[in-house]
Design a protein that fits this description.
- The complex is a heterodimer of chains A (106) and B (280).
- By secondary structure, chain A is an alpha/beta fold.
- Chain A has two helices and six strands, in the order βββββαβα.
- Chain A starts with a strand and ends in a 9-residue tail after the last helix.
- Chain B is of the alpha/beta class.
- Chain B contains ten helices and seven strands.
- A seven-stranded mixed beta sheet of chain B has the order 1-2-3-4-5-6-7, sandwiched between helices.
- In chain B, helix 2 packs parallel to helix 3 and helix 3 packs parallel to helix 4.
- Classes of the chains: A alpha/beta (106), B alpha/beta (280).
- The interface between A and B is medium-sized, with 21 and 22 residues.
């Protein structure tokens, strides 16, 4: 297991916590907690696959290129591919932007 | 005419399973993913933890009556119960027990999808499961507790005992119930005893249909959300509060044991024939 941290500039206000995914083989879990007081998205990542820091950096750089929520991200990864990671990040962002929040858990 | 594909209960995530079993809009989660109450033991062993430690504790109502619906996440660590997830389950059951003792009718449903105790947490998992067992024994003295085994993991080990301590078990054909899982039996007793890769034999021995036919579980349902939810609600509508828990129905087990010579290894079909004769 490897722990990595990333910080991005963020402007958008997150009005509720978000949870998607599962720590199952080839998948990952993302928890977003609102952090309106700080102009950043802070990502605390734990991954089961060591040595892919540069790959994570590229996937996250591309994802946060066009804006980010002011939030604390907890990402628990169980060997998801970069494509899977992008899908889960997109799912979390879509949920965060859905108003009113959906009635059924993701 | 076009066939409509009905969404499967076994394909739902545990949080969605809990929501489906509770009245719409009443789900309230206790110690959910945003509380980040994860296992302190897994990261120290190099294993990535999960924010809810694989247990969902829901309160809400079923048919307007106060309810506790608890679900294990079979996708995380095989649904294995650790110190934290076990404590969440035990505390939720103890709270339901307090409610029942103080005269508040409380419906309790467990969605079991678990290989048993999480081996990485060893004795701490065992202790938590012992607390769950004790709470269930007491809880079933005050009314029914419904277990649901939807699959795909099934229900084994200490959680297999939990299934045995409920008053009603609902299973799909996809679900399996046992003490030792097939892989464990093959590893410990040899491939002559059981070939765990032989799915037909495994399901004929411990699958939902066989468990219901032989009286080890009460209700066999289609793996459709509406069927599982309807079966659970039906139990609460029709069963008197005094229904005995499964663990107290020992004459049935004694008749079954008496009918067997331990040197004989019956096929699943022979086993069914004997059990349905001895335990009508």
């Amino acid at each position: 297991m490897q722990e990595l941290t990333f910080v991005y500039d963020a402007d958008d206000i997150l009005d509720r916590p978000i949870h998607v995914g599962v720590v199952a083989s080839g998948d990952l879990e993302i928890v977003m907690l609102p952090d309106p007081g700080r102009p950043t998205a802070t990502i605390a990542l734990r991954t089961s696959v060591d040595g892919h820091g540069a790959r994570w950096q590229r996937v996250l750089d591309r994802f946060f290129e066009h804006g980010a929520f002011r939030a604390r991200y907890e990402i628990n990864d169980s060997g998801a591919t970069p494509g899977m990671v992008s899908l889960r990040l997109g799912q979390a962002r879509e949920l965060a932007a859905t108003n009113p929040p959906p009635a059924v858990a993701p | 005419m076009s066939a409509r594909i009905r969404p499967a209960f076994s394909q739902l995530r545990p949080r969605q399973r809990v929501q489906a079993l509770l009245d719409p809009g009443t789900f309230r989660e206790i110690l959910g993913p945003f509380d980040l109450l994860e296992s302190p033991h897994l990261p120290r062993q190099g294993i990535v933890p999960q924010s809810d430690d694989g247990a969902v504790i829901g309160r809400g109502t079923i048919d307007g009556v106060s309810a506790a619906v608890l679900a294990l996440d079979g996708a995380f660590q095989g649904g294995g119960v650790g110190e934290v997830s076990g404590a969440k389950l035990a505390a939720a059951l103890e709270r339901a027990l307090d409610d029942r003792r103080s005269g508040t009718p409380t419906r309790v449903v467990l969605v079991l999808d678990s290989g048993g105790i999480r081996l990485q947490e060893a004795n701490l998992g065992l202790l938590a499961v012992a607390e769950i067992h004790a709470a269930l024994v007491e809880l079933t003295r005050h009314g029914p507790v419904v277990g649901v085994i939807p699959g795909p993991v099934g229900c084994f080990g200490g959680m297999g005992i939990v299934a045995g301590l409920t008053s009603h078990l609902i299973m799909t054909r996809y679900g399996r119930l046992g003490l030792n899982g097939p892989e464990v039996i093959e590893t410990e007793a040899g491939i002559d005893e059981l070939d765990a890769s032989d799915r037909a034999t495994v399901w004929a021995t411990i699958g939902g249909a066989q468990r219901v036919t032989t009286g080890q579980a009460e209700v066999l349902v289609d793996d459709a959300i509406e069927s599982v939810v309807a079966a659970a609600h039906q139990i609460w509508r029709t069963v008197p509060d005094a229904h005995p828990p499964r663990a107290e129905r020992i004459d049935q087990a004694q008749r079954m044991l008496a009918a067997f010579d331990h040197r004989w290894r019956p096929t699943p079909a022979e086993f069914t024939a004997i059990v349905t004769r001895e335990v009508p």
